[in-house]
From TrEMBL:
Family matches, as Pfam families: COPI_C
Coiled coil (UniProt feature): none
Organism the protein comes from: Pleurodeles waltl (Iberian ribbed newt)
Top-level taxonomic group: Eukaryota
Gene Ontology terms: biological process: intracellular protein transport; vesicle-mediated transport
Listed name of the protein: Coatomer alpha subunit C-terminal domain-containing protein
Length: 73
């Protein structure tokens, strides 16, 4: 049994060493103030009217509160 675990661990380590990055491309404009949709983690920019449905999940009757990022004016 231990040989199988060691072999599996070495396979995983080998795959991880081929691509040693965990960077994730973020889709937002850092110069434009925005809120973050707590359901999809997508930015909701100031003045955007499409945010109403963003924070509702199909199986959840109440909206999830928005997390705010940035300065409020």
């Amino acid at each position: 049994m231990p040989r199988t675990d060691v072999h599996w661990t070495r396979k995983i380590l080998s795959a991880c060493e081929k691509n040693p990055t965990d960077a994730y491309q973020l889709n937002y404009d850092m110069h434009n103030p925005f809120d973050i949709c707590a359901a999809s983690y997508r930015p909701i920019y100031r003045g955007n009217r499409d945010w109403q449905g963003c924070h509702r999940l199909k199986d959840q009757p109440t909206p999830i509160p928005l997390m705010y990022y940035g300065k409020r004016k």
